[in-house]
Amino acid sequence: MQDARLRLLTVIILSVASFLSVAGAVAAFFWWMIFTPGIRTITKSPFALFFLGFTGSVSALLWFSGGDGISYLVRMAVILLLAFYAYSGRAPGEFLDLSVWLFGRKLGFDIGLAAEMSLQGMDILSDEIRRIRVAFQLKSIKFGFRSIIPAAGLLIHSQFARAEEQADLLAVRGYRGGGMVCPGFTRAKGDLSAFLSAILPLILAIMPVGDIFILLQ
Amino acid sequence: MELEFMDIQVERDCFLIQGSGIFTPGIHLVSGRVGSGKTTLAMIAAGLGMPDRGVVRRQGIGSVMLSMQFPEQHLTGSTLESEIASWRLDPDPVLALAGLSGRGKDDPFSLSRGELKRLHLACIFSRPFDLLILDEPFSALDCRGKMTTADQIGSIRAGITIIFTHENQHLPRVDYLWEIREGALVFLGSVPEALVGWKNKPAVLAELHKRGVYPKNLSTADILEAACRTHD
Question: Quick one: closest CA in B to A139, which residue?
Answer without folding.
Answer: B87
